[in-house]
Amino acid sequence: MDALPFKLSLVKAVFKDVTPMHVSRSAASAAAAVTRTVLAEIIAGASRVAAEEARKKLVPTDLVAAIDRNVELEVGGTWYHYSPTFRHLTGELRDADGVVVASPKRSRSRKPSAVVGAHRFEAGVRHLLRSQGVMAGPAMVRDLDGIASVFLTDLARDAARVVRDRGIQRFGSVALAISGEPTPGPSLKGSPQTDSARSGDRRTIGGDDVLAATTIQLFGELRDRALSDAREAARHTLVG
Asked: Where is this region: Disordered (predicted)?
C-alpha cells in the first residue's frame, strides 16, 4: 500500500480542532486514507478536463468542471464560501448597475479553523499531484488544500457524533416510486432509526467510527472506494 500523503499527526490535529476525544491510530489512518481517496479523485477529474485542452497544468476552472461532471466530488462545501474560484457559484450581491458589491471582510479569527489551517495540507496535495503526473497553479493548489482541510474537518466532526450517538441515526425514510404504480406506504419502524449500532467507550474515536462518518460524507462509487481504502489503511496500521 502506498504511503499516505497526509501525516497522521496532521489528521489528529484536525480532529483535536473539533473534539476533545482521543483518536486511535487506526482512526487517523482511516481518515487520512479517505481524504487521500477523495482528493485523488478530484485531481483525476480535473486532469481529465485539462487533458481535453492538451494541458498538464491544472487551473481552478478544471476543478469546477470536474465537480460539475461528477456530483460525488462536491465535498468540503464550506471552502466554497472563502474561495474566489467558487464565489460565482455561491452567489454575488450586485447593485442596480450590475456591479458586484464587496461583502464585508471577515476577520481572520472568525474564519473556521478548517479554512485558516488549509495551508497545512499543501505538502500532501502536491504529493498527490506528482503521483498523477500533473502540475497545478497556486490558486488550484490553494483550492485543493482548502477542500482537503474542510472535508477532513467535516469527517472528524461526524466521527465524533457517531461516538456520542453510539451509531448512525437517520431520521425519516425515502422510498423510490415507479411511474404508474402506487407509492409505497410509510415505514412502520420508529424514527429516528439506528442504522448501525456502536460498541466501545464514548471517549475514543476508532476506525469503525471513521468508516461510519465516511458513509455520511460521501455516496456512490467514491464512497465505496474511500471505504475500501480506509479499511486497508486501518488493517495495515493494526499489523504495523
From this structure: 179-206
Give CA–CA dist 31/153, Å, rounded: 10
Domains of the chain: 8-89+112-173+189-239 (1.10.20.10)
**Contact (Cβ atoms closer than 8 angstroms) between residue 214 and residue 230:** yes
Which pTM does this prediction carry? 0.80
**Over 60: is that where the pLDDT of 170 sits?**
no
Contacts for 51 with CB less than 8 Å, ≥ 6 apart: none
Burial class (CB in 10 A: 0-12, 13-18, 19+), 173: exposed
206-209 contacts: CB < 8 A, separation 24 or more? 206/24, 206/26, 206/27, 207/24, 207/26, 207/27, 207/29, 207/30, 207/231, 207/234, 207/237, 209/27, 209/159, 209/160, 209/162, 209/163
Can you give the pLDDT at residue 165?
87
